[in-house]
Design brief:
6-stranded mixed beta sheet, single chain, globular, 10 strands, two-stranded antiparallel ribbon, 9 helices, 32% helix
Length: 288
């Protein structure tokens, strides 16, 4: 498989040419392409972020010679390279068995981005996670902004692999800087002042487990709706905390998690525009 190397300066130019040109029809077949149906949409609706659990050479080998793949790979060099491995018009095998909102098997509706990172190691003191290099995230932000612009990706549709497969995946892990993506305007983030305002109420009385399950499902997670705090529910709570409250992600449905969920699923209403003041003595046309 051919690998196209993208540098910081050439990334946007190279990506602009990702669309596949349809081949000419076989002899004797005439196809008229002057019409276009209204009922269609972009294949790409989600972006899924992963880490590779390997170094760059092994990551390249795995993603180019095995069944697993990704559309892009961001290396961990001091000046990272972004490799384009699969054309955006084609499906890559990066998500596996996955669910989010009404979609399952998200390979068909997403772009996968792998970031070279070892993931974690277990030590006598506990699990130690590897940080991402700032230069990697700088490149990722450029790549994300370009993809979002071209495919009109909604902020809530940039996700981690663990969010679409919470029972089996941990990547991109608790050290992935989701808040940086929020600050760049790429993803939705719970407003801290609104979270702080709602926290005391949840400290007084915590919602039941069914509320947590229902609200997590409203965000998009595949979570049981049984009212029972089982292992599957704990895993989903932990994934949510990993993203929005990475200081503590033990899967316990506590007051802060409830406040974060509440704010995330209760967007502020859009206020109507204030009426324009008309100076005294100025006549206005009646509204029909």
């Amino acid at each position: 498989m051919k690998i196209v190397t993208l540098t910081v300066l050439s990334t946007l130019l190279a990506l602009a040419g990702c669309a596949t040109v349809p081949p000419p029809p076989p002899a004797g077949l005439a196809i008229d392409r002057t019409l276009s149906a209204r009922g269609q949409s972009d294949r790409v609706k989600y972006i899924i972020i992963h880490y590779t659990v390997s170094d760059t050479p092994r990551s390249v080998k795995i993603l180019t010679t095995q069944d697993v793949s990704a559309h892009y790979l961001v290396t961990d060099a001091d000046q990272p390279t972004v490799y384009s491995l699969v054309d955006e018009s084609r499906q890559s095998n990066h998500a596996g068995y996955s669910n989010w909102k009404i979609y399952n098997q998200l390979n068909a509706a997403s772009i996968g981005i792998e970031i070279v990172n070892p993931g974690y190691k277990d030590t006598p003191e506990g699990r130690a996670w590897y940080p991402f290099k700032p230069a990697q995230i700088d490149q990722l932000v450029l790549l994300l902004k370009d993809i979002v612009k071209r495919h009109n990706i909604r902020p809530e549709n940039i996700l981690g692999h663990n969010e679409i497969a919470p029972q089996r995946k941990l990547d991109p892990g608790p050290l992935f800087p989701w808040k940086r993506l929020a600050d760049e305007g790429l993803i939705t983030w719970p407003e801290p002042s609104r979270v702080a305002a709602r926290l005391p109420g949840y400290q007084q009385q915590l919602p039941d487990i069914f509320w947590f399950q229902r609200t997590l499902a409203q965000v998009g997670y595949a979570v049981p709706q049984t009212g029972v705090f089982d292992t599957a529910t704990r895993n989903v709570v932990a994934v949510f905390q990993t993203k929005y409250r990475p200081a503590l992600f033990d899967g316990t449905p506590d007051a802060e998690t409830a406040a974060l969920l509440d704010v995330l699923t209760s967007p502020l209403p859009v206020l109507p525009a204030a009426p324009v003041a008309v100076p005294a003595g100025v006549e206005t046309a009646p509204v029909e």
